[in-house]
Amino acid sequence: MSIPNSDMSQNGNIRHVDALCSVAEIEEIDFSKLLDRPSFLNMERKRSFDERSLSELSVALSPRHSSRNADNSSRFFDHPEYVFSPSRTSFIGTPRSLTGFEPHPMVAEAWETLRRSLVFFRGQPVGTIAATDTSEEKLNYDQVFVRDFVPSGLAFLMNGEPEIVKNFILKTLRLQSWEKKIDRFHLGEGVMPASFKVLHDPVRNSETLIADFGESAIGRVAPVDSGFWWIILLRAYTKSTGDSSLAELPECQKGMRLILSLCLSEGFDTFPTLLCADGCCMIDRRMGVYGYPIEIQALFFMALRCALLLLKQDDEGKEFVERIVKRLHALSYHMRSYFWLDFKQLNDIYRYKTEEYSHTAVNKFNVIPDSLPDWVFDFMPTRGGYFIGNVSPARMDFRWFCLGNCIAILSSLATPEQSMAIMDLIESRWEELAGEMPLKVCYPAIESHQWRIVTGCDPKNTRWSYHNGGSWPVLLWLLTAACIKTGRPQIARRAIELAESRLLKDNWPEYYDGKLGRYVGKQARKFQTWSVAGYLVAKMMLEDPSHLGMIALEEDRQMKPVMKRSNSWTC
Known about the structure:
mainly alpha, Glycosyltransferase, three-stranded antiparallel β-sheet, two-stranded antiparallel ribbon, about 40% helix, about 10% strand, disordered C terminus
């Protein structure tokens, strides 16, 4: 069979399957024949963004070409897996404008701040610290966090500086191999660190790395998301540079397999989603996200798809490919069926019967309709929808979580119709989700008695603060990427303009408080690195949409939506 737009390295060991090559097609590939196929027989490529003219890009991004039709949601994807787009870098290390206009004055300031956050190990840059704020106690803000580095890494890749990303990937990979022990319990071999720190010994004139796998974290929870972000960043590096040699390294291949082994292991689960503890991701404190949080499921889905593109086709790789393919089918079905909420689905849940016992049960999780929160009925527009926060037996968390929904769009966990519905909801509920500083990490805030029960009276997660309905500028890059993928760049422009009115003046806070995000967070660090990097990535993607190829995957055509069309999907 022919494999559209596949890439083979010179030694033929690693395959980059085009996103239009469906999971079903991947199952049919005879890998032994594929490995024998000479690389010069590579397939034709459709024109990427790099091969388009600037005038075409300008037309494509003009407001009048931003259609809400789901059939046009892939307007910017003439090719789903973009080829390397060389960065245009000025002599001061900041990107030149593709349009010829001077960049926003914040851009140069942002690059200076980002570069000040660089961490060096034995003379080589290996990451960026969480914050460069010297006015507060350091705590762990002087460490390099895996999840925090992702927007920094993307910014450097987009600016033609891949070396720091390569160094980061290799150093964290080395840390993965360390023995991980909390009290008398050994963590899984594949666990990636939450963060690491470079210790300088002036007496011995030496440097060492110290990693935190959760043993120092609040609540002592291992970071489930770190491994997923690592795989996603490895794929972004490979896509940006066109260099597959890093991913082909035996160490990287083993690192991926170890991460996947943790996630794909068999147990007592009856669902394809991952069961997690509270505080295992960006929301790293007790916030009621235990169970099957949308953020983890979306990252899991995206990491599986990225791994499918990066794994070698040796004996070990083939085994994992088969397991990944099966899990992707099951996971997409489950998420699109049970996590998706729109007006029609909400009305159906409102009318659910309970205590159903049979294979034909409609209310499969025995959700009690009286448990539906009052706010969701007003929040849900007639046109729009989103993936809810959590689904488990007799429990549905109807809160909106920004990161999970944006990753669902970028990974194509969301169908094109669902992706457009998510963007419709963001537009309809702009005041609630963006307010005066984009974007809400979750909505709405929990308060009063519920806050006491869910957070354990956490003084940092009071209502409309921090993880409890706080506004996080870092989420700009995820929103911008989702906007470009769905053909709605005007939403991203609106969000970026809001951020530009405050971020620099407020010294790049970590988060903002209040229902509208009007106030700098009460415990927010200034000069927060991922607030800076998130802004830069958003600006560069909006200016040159080809960068989106690093972080977005096109829909698998074989993963058909399982839900009936509702009015919210009618565009």
